[in-house]
Amino acid sequence: MSELKLENVSRWYGNVVAVNGVSMTIGPGAPGCSARTAPGSPR
Q1: The pLDDT of residue 41
Q2: Which of 15, 18, 21, 28 is the most exposed place for a label (fewest CB within 10 A)?
């Protein structure tokens, strides 16, 4: 299995900062991150 890693992520809405400098790692088995449970995927 793979992991999802985000480093120093920022999100702006116009001139408003919603998220600034966030880093995280999501490992295997995190709820909602599996392609087989994504909306529209075959079950």
Answers
A1: 56
A2: 15
